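Let us work through a complete example step by step.
Step 1: write down the sequence.
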Amino acid sequence: MKKSVPALLVFLIAVLSVACGHHAAPASPQTASADTTGFFALPVFFKDQLAYAQSLHTPIYRVTIKDGKKDSASLNQEAFKQLAGIFLSKDISAPNIKVLYRESVFRDLGTKSYTLSYTTAHDNAIIREINILLDEESNNVKRVFIRSQYNKGDTSITEQCNWKAYKSFQVNRYLHAGHYSSTELNYVNWNNDTP
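Step 2: predict the structure and record it as tokens.
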């Protein structure tokens, strides 16, 4: 029996020394992984739309209604590009801007489309919301809605930009400063026919 006690004691000491002496390697510090989530490539879509509109060589018309007064004119390519440039400036895909937005998807059975929505709760974000309607079967863009809000001096400006694929766009602005308010509606059309 004396032989088994020391053997058992040696065994317990060995187990305890291994258990107590074995320490897990400290976890390596975790670095933030790169954001691989991709927002819809709106700048690419708008550039393709501009190229399409310019390839048609059809008249481009602009209708403006400012504070109830209507005016219409045809646009040359340069004026058209300048007006459409506002859509190219509405890009939220840069990493420092992208973090301000939350993406959600909604399927609308009535219109047979998906809506990608990018919304923010940050007051310092100029672009407040972007909604992109995609055809359910083809995933082609049908419409894009962009709502922005910003200040210029003491004037508060709410801007609604709408793009109808292959056909037209609108840029509507509502200005408010103290007792002054103004409304400007701009409609630009380059194709009444379906492509």
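Step 3: interpret the result. The mean pLDDT is 82.
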